[in-house]
Amino acid sequence: xxxxxxxxxxxxxxxxxxxxxxxxxxxxxxxxxxxxxxxxxxxxxxxxxxxxxxxxxxxxxxxxxxxxxxxxxxxxxxxxxxxxxxxxxxxxxxxxxxxxxxxxxxxxxxxxxxxxxxxxxxxxxxxxxxxxxxxxxxxxxxxxxxxxxxxxxxxxxxxxxxxxxxxxxxxxxxxxxxxxxxxxxxxxxxxxxxxxxxxxxxxxxxxxxxxxxxxxxxxxxxxxxxxxxxxxxxxxxxxxxxxxxxxxxxxxxxxxxxxxxxxxxxxxxxxxxxxxxxxxxxxxxxxxxxxxxxxxxxxxxxxxxxxxxxxxxxxxxxxxxxxxxxxxxx
Length: 330
Ligand SMILES: NC(=O)c1ccc[n+]([C@@H]2O[C@H](COP(=O)([O-])OP(=O)(O)OC[C@H]3O[C@@H](n4cnc5c(N)ncnc54)[C@H](OP(=O)(O)O)[C@@H]3O)[C@@H](O)[C@H]2O)c1
Known about the structure:
The structure is a single chain. By secondary structure, the protein is α/β, with parallel strands linked by helices. It has one domain: Rossmann fold. The chain contains 11 helices and 8 strands. Strands 3-2-1-4-5-6-7-8 form an 8-stranded mixed sheet. Helix 4 packs parallel to helix 5 (130-157), helix 5 (130-157) packs parallel to helix 7 (200-218) and helix 7 (200-218) packs across helix 11 (302-322). NADP nicotinamide-adenine-dinucleotide phosphate (NAP) binds at residues 27, 29-33, 53-54, 57, 85-88, 113-116, 134, 166, 168, 233-234, 236-237, 239-241. Pfam families: adh_short.
């Protein structure tokens, strides 16, 4: 049962200095992504790469960050780089990954923040449900493309690269249990792509469930001395994510948000806690706010375990058609 009033969040500990660090953040053009970018630069990150679908919007965020008085005073030489990254399109994800590998010698921290929650099934050029591809497959493709490069960077620096993925508590309640069970013989991704399987208010949570299942499958295959991979949920945060809702629902959500939602700054602290403060003990774990949580009841169930296994096999097969699989995927 979710507490209606969310506990207060403490700021990040003092003394974090990201001098020399290169960080990539997806969806840096609004909401928590923009706030995390600001916080990273205030913590003196040397280079922050804003991976955004709308480059003009990203450039205008970069300009406003360069004018931030704190950043101007404390991190005047920071490199703020905007790169196109549209998760609706696999080719864009792959072009972004190639550009990163070609232009940036090492990435120390990768924050997978971009995400959406649509109330109807829309299709990407690949034919996938858009909410699922943006939240799940395109993130997996980015990880697949970058894993050897992140590992190589960790070997050069002697400390693990970090991947922190913004998930959601909404993954704990899934339509796979009752409203839209995955039939035996049906693939998980096939299910997500079927019109009749789309449950509007649960699609977002289901797509985030896929993300959590993937993390639980991949993390044990990674060496945490090379890559620490975790996922976190920042709780309800006051961003524009609900702008996709129809007006009548937006009005209700806006009232709930006014009472309950955390300010975007606190959301930023929670995301950065997982990437900067949480240690190797967080590898392969889901953090609710800043606390490591147990796997959800569904994920622990026999059905959940079967879904996790199927999803891993299907996802690896799809990635294998798109790119060269890293050793950890085989
Ligand atoms: N807000 C909450 O209460 C809450 C709670 C739990 C988890 N989350 C998660 O937190 C993350 C950030 O969300 P937010 O609340 O900050 O929402 P937001 O303000 O709507 O930000 C979402 C970001 O994702 C980007 N994006 C959307 N579609 C994209 C695509 N196809 N390719 C690349 N980027 C794309 C957006 O780009 P544009 O700027 O171009 O629109 C935006 O920068 C999401 O993963 C969300 O699921 C949010």
